[in-house]
Amino acid sequence: MSAADAAASTASSPAAPGLDTALAARLKRDPQGLVTAVVQDARSRRVLMVGWMDDEALHRTLTTGRATYWSRSRQELWVKGETSGHVQYVRSASLDCDGDTLLLEVDQIGPACHRDTDTCFDGGELEAVVLAPEERTA
Amino acid sequence: MSAADAAASTASSPAAPGLDTALAARLKRDPQGLVTAVVQDARSRRVLMVGWMDDEALHRTLTTGRATYWSRSRQELWVKGETSGHVQYVRSASLDCDGDTLLLEVDQIGPACHRDTDTCFDGGELEAVVLAPEERTA
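^ Those are the sequences you sent over. The predicted structure of the assembly is below.
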């Protein structure tokens, strides 16, 4: 969808510009009105981070081409990279079968994590049992 | 870590077997005591689903080699694939910088979604503005 089409698609509710109503009806929000957003690098395929979106954040993400979240700590909308320059350009967005989780594929500019690591999971590896093939009896 | 090592690592708290206490202290749980778990297919690199874990689910995931979640709808522990056979064998697990999200890389047996699709995001693609390179001025 082009930017012009996106603008047109929301023009039906000019008094309350925001998320497409059909999509809004599919969302299963948590008690804070948020859905989970998993962010994956479109090129490396690495999972970069998880953020949270209210309806407005999702609307902006889908219509501006830049990933926008709801900051639970600051209680405000947050355009990723607005201050750091580490923008996420949206390549695709999908809603899961439950309607409570989004998957964004993005082109990440710079590191995704505020610690300047590529992903928010770098350095967080946990010790885990990995079963050998012969032990894999479901 | 082998299964034997994993058993030994939790033997220090035999009265309350469960998650390693150092790891437990790093977790930032939601009001329901849960952390988010993003699940990625280790081979295809596709994001399969998002689940939720309490401390016991995480402990079992890390020590049994099979992804185990807390079902928010059924309010019970849930070994993925227990009834469907669509098991997730753990390949790695990482905790994010905030301590509230896990990333699991798994070998997924069969489809990950209860709808028999490969992932829970299949069929959920949303219309999204994708900026052309010349429009990408952060």
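The two ends of chain B are 44 Å apart (CA to CA). The mean pLDDT of chain B is 89.

Shout if you want it in another format.
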